[in-house]
Amino acid sequence: MTVVDADGQPIEEVPGDRVLLRPFRPADTEALLTGMNDPVTRRFLPHLPAPYTAEDARGWIGEFAPAAFAHGMAAFAVADADTGELLGGVGMDRAVPQFAQAEVGYWTMPGARGRGVATAAVRALAGWAFGRGLNRLELLADWANAASQRVALGAGFTREAVRRGVGVRDGVRHDLLAFVRLADDPAEPAPRLLPDLPGGELSDGVVTLRPLDASDTAFLTELARLPDVVATSVPPVAPEPAELAVRCERAAARWLAGERADLVIADAVTGERAGEIGLYYQEPRTGQAMIGYSMLPAWRGRGYPTRAAQLLALWAFAETGIARLIAGTLPANTGSQRVLEKAGFHREGLLRSRLPGVSGARADDVQYALVAEDLVTAVLRTA
User: CA 218 to CA 241: how far, in whole Å?
Assistant: First the structure.
């Protein structure tokens, strides 16, 4: 079977890093069935037939994928460059010829995930598309699909915007993140403002910090709605459970965007959740970020937030461009002030009426700051 493009020319194979983009073949049928019926694939490609049948696979291979090329778009199989094994698919549609732009999409077989397959495939497709005269490629990713966002960033795409209500799942419209790469953009990813934690977590043997995720929704709801936690929040209003669920679901996306790093404070021995701590990178140009934290009552008085603040600060100063951390407390919150002082923070001043209070009132904010030299001194003092 010969697959041709919009000009009637046969589609050539496109080499990538350990992958090969080629037209789909009848021999791909069984693998295509496995990939299209995988729960993760189906979650983020909700338009797929349910279930995806052999007839659907044959229709894709023999009709729909070739038609994409014939209409100026693309639907490549992603194969192992050495064995020819089907590893996934990558393509582009929604082409707008007058603006030389199109939208990229991809999927990966369950057994091929985590190996850089999708990133290599998207990078190869982008090179092929730009070589054919396109100037702008857009890639849309679900807020919850951190893996897809990593692929976009790894293939040289830049997060550009939030496309409101552009996605549909189970009849409900939802927002998608838009990533864009232009023809003259570098293929390699730009350095991230907030890189991943080394080994996925931080620990001093007593407490462990790990990224917040969707599995933490019930825990965060319990913590964030405690009356004393609400009283020290900005604004001092109990968040709705749905709002907290969204925060957990989107935590990885916001980390990847360099906006904030939300972490769970857990007991290093049992793994039990004890609290949360967040870093908000509000001033990348000046290298300043802010931290905040809260603990469940049963875990207070053990020094966990101080340890957590020092662990987070060590990572921030060593692995990011952050040079200064700040934190604020209400004047009456002496417990939080002690935590900051033990962690090495220095009180710098009082910002009058900075924070929204109850019933329209305003509250003062006691400001603390930490730089690397302060942290070294505090750690040595503790040791």
Answer: 8
